[in-house]
Amino acid sequence: MIKKWTVMNRRQFLFTGLALAGSATLGIQFWQYSLTPQADNRTLVLAAILPALLYGALPEDPQEARRALERTEQAVQDFMHFLPLRQQQQLDQLFNLMAHRFSRLGLTGLWLNLEELTLQQRLLILQRWRDSYLLTLQQAYHGLRELLYGAFYGQPEHWQTLTYSAPRFR
Prior knowledge:
mainly alpha
């Protein structure tokens, strides 16, 4: 049997070209958008990731745990300005990508919004990133972990659980 090849006509060629140009433009526009800091995205992602990353370290009382999470989120917001510009951009890009469905689907394999995920699903995302063969996902995990642990354990009220006492200067 001889296969008949379909010949692309001019109209199909033009529509295909326009579709490719449009999708490339949207991709570039989304990439540029992902680089600009969005405070709402940072807040959304931190509210979802902090309870998972600090699981077991938070106080048992729900009100105290909520206050600790709020203080930690504020500490992250305050500390971001002291990071080198490149790290600020990388973290903001991660927060922006995690806040949008399509990019989150690529990063996590989950379509649900972050706030709709269970604590176990959030922990699973972090474990997958930690153990991923992709260096970028490992870098995202370790960067978030160091930033969030630093913000949480950098607060004096959490030092007692670590049996840490601040050095005294004379």
